[in-house]
Amino acid sequence: MPQIRHALLSACLALLGATAAQAGEIAVIVKTTNSTFWQNVNKGAEAGIKEAAGHTMTFSGPASESAIADQVNLVENAVNRRVAGIVLAPSDPDALVPAIKKAWEARIPVVLIDSQVADSGKAYYQSFLTTDNRAAGELCAKELIAKVGMTGKVAVMSYVAGSGSEVGRVGAFTSYLKANSKLEIVGPFYSQSQMATALNQTTDVLAAHRDLKGIFGANEPTAVGMGRALVQSGRAGKIVAIGFDGNQDLQKFVDDGALAGIAVQGSYQMGYLGVKTIQDVLQKKPVPKFRDTGVVWVTKGNLKSPEAKAVLY
């Protein structure tokens, strides 16, 4: 009888342990909380957590996308408090690798969203959900060429040099222009994802290059700053301007004609699917190593369409 009781007790403890391992906190850690893009990721994650029985969710990020050490600390703190899983948008491809390795060693699943980590970190995360940034960058380049032609000057207003999404998106944009046109590229300039910095940089570029034919703002705060600079300079609509992401400021710029179009990512989907994918991993379900969350090209002509409304925020 003691042996039977011991076996039953062991089985109960094992069952309780398995349940505990599958419940608990899912930590969503993004590049910064000071952006409507990442706040829309949060909305998606909140919707996902409502469908994840037994889990709670925390949402955090540093004050700016360039505060990489702060983001590393957030991940390490999540590991130390033994969260059930981590959804992470890494600000730097190299700096976050040791942190996600710690999660892997602690058997805490990690799902990346938006940006990749270096190849050395591929073993330490379960899935990567993102826009195909290379394809999106090429899409923006094609739209720009179609509107400005094959010659002239175009400026590239970028955000954080070396971040995973920036390397793919801006790299593909500039590579496509170089390979398929004779357009002269001015920049790139790096705003550090600060709207005010992008505004000032764009103002300077517009003043220095009166013959500019096109301009590309490669993420939300950069594109907003670019759009405001175009309006303030009186050159909105006179230069072909293309933005990336889709908050209300950018939608207004498209509607007013300051921007010819915006490439809009599925930010809500990143948050929603990030949380759902963590839950699948915890339940031992197979998950894809990579999932494309898509991009929609939005112009004044389709701004009110169901397809655009599904991704605008």
Automatic annotation (TrEMBL):
Highest taxon of the lineage: Bacteria
GO cellular component terms, semicolon-separated: cell envelope
UniProt keywords, alphabetically: Signal
Occurrences of domain Periplasmic binding protein (ranges): 26-285
Family matches, as SUPFAM superfamilies: Periplasmic binding protein-like I (SSF53822)
Signal peptide range in chain numbering: 1-23
Localization of this protein: Cell envelope
Principal location class: other
GO molecular function, one term: carbohydrate binding
Pfam families hit by this protein: Peripla_BP_4
Family classification: Belongs to the bacterial solute-binding protein 2 family.
Name under which the protein is recorded: Monosaccharide ABC transporter substrate-binding protein (CUT2 family)
Organism name: Roseateles saccharophilus
